[in-house]
Design brief:
Radius of gyration: 14 Å
Shape: globular
Family: Belongs to the glutathione peroxidase family.
Structural class: alpha+beta
Low-confidence stretches: none
GO molecular function: peroxidase activity
Distance between the termini: 23 Å
Number of strands: 6
Number of helices: 4
Oligomer: single chain
Pfam families: GSHPx
Strand order of the largest sheet: 4-3-5-6
Protein name: Glutathione peroxidase
Number of domains: 1
CATH superfamily: Glutaredoxin
Keywords: Oxidoreductase, Peroxidase
């Protein structure tokens, strides 16, 4: 399977295939609105605004697997992201990113780009995966890697 074969649910409950993003550079992030890294939403939004016309798509996947730092329902998550962080990039329904109930997309991402020492597990909120225009997962970034810190990697893929 490629990244384009996966189906996801939008924050408003609609099903969509990632095929929609074929030809884009993707930055896929597991998010949590109550996390200490939540200020990164602003940096992610800035990347979205700056590079979307060049083919970048930032995709946010809320998860509550790390100290229950996400709101309970998708409507509340969407509202908090818009009101508190000005998010306009696509958000998806809350999912699990680890374990037996992990979303198949995240099983694929962690298989293609393991973490430190080959670990497949997502360690915390705001782990980021960079995917090239052909759908290949090219890099995994740690939660502490800010959007500003990874911007150069994005620019290189956009210019490729």
């Amino acid at each position: 399977m490629t990244i384009y074969d996966y189906e996801v649910t939008t924050i408003t409950g609609e099903r969509e295939k990632l095929e929609k993003y074929r030809g884009h550079v993707l930055l896929i992030v597991n998010t949590a609105t109550k996390c200490g890294f939540a200020p990164q939403f602003s940096g992610l939004e800035k990347l979205h605004q700056t590079y979307r016309d060049q083919g970048l798509a930032v995709l946010g996947f809320p998860s509550s697997q790390f100290m229950n730092q996400e709101l309970e329902d998708n409507a509340s998550i969407e509202e908090a992201c818009k009101l508190n962080h000005g998010v306009t990039f696509p958000l998806f329904a809350k999912i699990d990113v680890n374990g037996t109930d992990a979303h198949p997309l995240y099983k694929h991402l962690t298989q293609e780009a393991p973490g430190v020492l080959g670990s497949k597990a997502i360690k915390w909120n705001f782990t980021k995966f960079l995917v090239d225009r052909e759908g290949k997962v090219v890099k995994r970034f740690a939660p502490a890697d800010t959007p500003e810190k990874i911007e150069e990697h994005i620019k290189k893929l956009l210019q490729a």
